[in-house]
Amino acid sequence: MAVEKTYLRAVIYIKLILVAIMWGGTFIATRMASQVFEPFTGASFRYLFALVFMIPLMLMKDKTALRINKKQFLQLLVLGSTGIFAYSFFFFNGMKRVEASHGSLIVALNPVLVMLISSLFGKDRINGISWLFILILQRMHSRQLLHCRLPPGPFSWAS
Q1: How would you write the pLDDT of the chain (159 residues) with one tens digit per residue?
Q2: Of 118, 119, 124, 101, which is closest to residue 25 (Cα–Cα)?
Q3: Could you give the C-alpha distances from 74 to 44, 71, 77, 136, in angstroms and in order?
Q4: Domain limits of the chain?
Q5: CA dist., res. 5 & res. 128, Å (int)
Q6: C-alpha triplet 151, 104, 94: angle, nearest 5°
Q7: Which of 91, 16, 17 is nearest to 47 (CA)?
Q8: 8 Å CB contact between 85 and 49
Q9: Residue 151's Cα: distance from chain center in Å?
Q10: Which of 5, 43, 131, 156 is the most buried (most CB within 10 A)?
Q11: Using only C-alpha atoms, what is the Rg of the chain?
């Protein structure tokens, strides 16, 4: 029993390491692709590539997954357009302007921003330890991002 538990824990850690490697590679790959493709084209390719691989995986898991009604289709269309395609569009746009390392730092702020917005507009409350982590992350990110120089463009005044 203990051996099986240790094995399962090792498998989980290996999967987490592989995910981190894939996510880290995303910034470099998108930075390179953004030099070739315009943001709209790059986001379209990224979305299409994901669909080609994800739909067969979904169907292998659940053959009835594509049986949706008109309301669900419209919801999926809106969520896919905003949550996936818009994110990819802005991601490509950002990677065209900054280095991959700076882009990853900016994206790493997303959980902190979600937590702050949830506390401002929702019922979530931030405890002391969370505030401490927010301050530490803000300090680390601001030090890194101060070294970021944007190319001439709409936000060149910020550099």
Answers
A1: 677 888 898 999 999 899 888 888 888 888 888 889 898 898 888 888 888 988 899 889 988 888 889 999 899 888 888 888 888 888 888 888 888 777 777 777 777 888 888 888 877 788 888 788 777 777 766 666 666 555 555 544 444
A2: 101
A3: 19, 5, 5, 41
A4: 1-96, 109-159
A5: 34
A6: 35
A7: 91
A8: no
A9: 23
A10: 43
A11: 20
What residue type is 80 in one-letter code?
G
Which pLDDT does position 158 carry in this prediction? 43
Q: How many CA atoms lie within 13 A of 127 on its CB side?
A: 1
pLDDT of residue 155: 47
Q: Find, among 31, 25, 24, the residue nearest to 100 by Cα.
A: 31
How far is it, in rounded angstroms, from Cα 39 to Cα 91?
8
* SS3 sequence of 115-153: HHHHHHHCCCCCCHHHHHHHHHHHHHHHHHHCCCCCCCC
